[in-house]
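Attaching the record inline, Q. Sequence:
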Amino acid sequence: MLQIKNTSNSPFTADETIIYEIRSLFPDFDERLQDLIAGMSGCSPFLYGLVKKEINWIKNALTSTKSPEAEIISEVLQSSDVTKSLRIAKGRIALWTALQDLSGNWQLEDVSKCLSEFADFSVKVALKTAIESIIAERKFSKLKNFNDAEQIGIFILAMGKLGARELNYSSDIDLVCFFDDEKLAEKDLFETRKAAISVIKGVTKILSETTEHGYVFRTDLRLRPDPSVNPVCIGFEAAEKYYEALGRTWERAAYIKARYCAGSSPIAVKFLAALYPFVWRKYLDFAAIEDAHSIRIRYQRKIELKTISSILGHDVKLGLGGIRDIEFFTQTRQLIVGGRDPDLQVAETLVALAKLAEKGWVSTDTSKRLAEHYRFLRKVEHLLQMVNDA
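Structure, as predicted:
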């Protein structure tokens, strides 16, 4: 049975109808657990809908000796309808993380880790399903090596919060998708590119499309090279040439959080190794240092400075001193000194802040204060997103 470790995290509802309903639905749960479920149902229409839909699952999850996360994944793998099962699984993961979070059992890192691991799993399943679907349709039967992601050379990198395993309750997931074009003959390149694009479009549809069972993850592919002109899946060699010739400082910052997510792992590792000198430069001239600093300065200029009287409209993510501002503060310093110190080449914001203080690049007081504020703002962001999954 779920233990309530910290009642200060537990939401409260004064809606007696919901309180009585939850107690009648879960009569065998102790009163504190009933109050927790009633509280989150009364405060979140999204979670309330899931609770009513998943009564039996909640009872089993909270009384079983097995890991609910493992059971959720197992059910998807055994399902013949991945599109439906992934959406049901996403709802259950949302319920499970909310219960663990609001009961005080999990810290910020635990919540983000669970959500990120499920997102990784979802992308892998979506990629496998998309490839199998296209093979079944025999759209690219001329390609002899079109059997799986390893043979095609398709790989997907997680970026942003997913890349750093910092996903929140209602995050979009940022992905960039590539295929191995290095060893392809010219006659095979066009057809392989078409196949890779079709696969990634299939992945996006599986993850993002809203059905009667909801959606899995809103998927953003715009961090790829020049997204206004390039397709959703780009050749490895073409992408490498782009970053060497045209890569910008903000793209270096984006790749701090990049990691392998799905598809051909060996090709992904090779690609990230090729980009290492682009992201982590050992030597920077004054212009490059100024450019790194300017990322945060340009961002701040876009933010409308508000007086304390308008604090209720403050954006905890994008506002001055918000989540994004702290992330930019951290990443700009990583870009400037990280090329000479591998210990600073970390994706997680809180880990990076601690490392920067340890190495003397920011004061211990600054690091601790920013980490404290970051945790608080992420917690507020999580609570806001729980309300309506938005």
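Strands lie at 155-159, 173-179, 219-220, 234-235, 259-263. The chain has 17 helices and five strands.

More tomorrow.
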